[in-house]
Amino acid sequence: MNGQYFLYRDSDAPVISVFPIDDKISNVINLTGAYFSGREKVMTENEILQLKSVHNLYYEQELGSQLTIFDLPEGSHE
């Protein structure tokens, strides 16, 4: 079991705080109020991954690693 971590918007702003309770569940804190109703929720790892995917959130180590179509070399997206 790892310690607390955050999920971020692509703008480097932390929006979700995750406190693992045990190997299967975590206490998830909605820092902005934008991602689910209420401030806190207990979630499984799969639910956190789904939340991350649906809202295009990133782990800290993923920040800055996203490519857009504008990052592709000229002619590679034809």
Low-confidence stretches: none
Share of helix, binned: 10-25%
**Separation, N- and C-terminal Cα atoms:** 45 Å
What Rg, in angstroms, do the CA atoms define? 15 Å
Structural class, by secondary structure, is alpha+beta
Give the strand content: 25-35%
Major sheet: size, sense and barrel closure?
5 strands, antiparallel
The outline comes out as: globular
Number of strands: 5
Number of domains: 1
Strand order within the widest beta sheet: 4-3-2-1-5
How would you describe the oligomerization state of the chains in this entry?
single chain
Secondary-structure map:
Layout: E1 5-8, E2 14-20, E3 25-30, E4 40-44, H1 45-54, E5 58-59
Antiparallel strand pairs: 1-2, 1-5, 2-3, 3-4
Describe this structure in words.
The chain has 78 residues and is α+β, with helices and mostly antiparallel strands. It has one domain (5-71). It is 13% helix and 31% strand. The chain is built from 1 helix and 5 strands. It has one helix at 45-54, and strands spanning 5-8, 14-20, 25-30, 40-44, 58-59. Strands 4-3-2-1-5 form a 5-stranded antiparallel sheet, with helices on one face. The longest helix is centred in the middle third of the chain and has 10 residues, at 45-54. The model has no long low-confidence stretch (mean pLDDT 86).
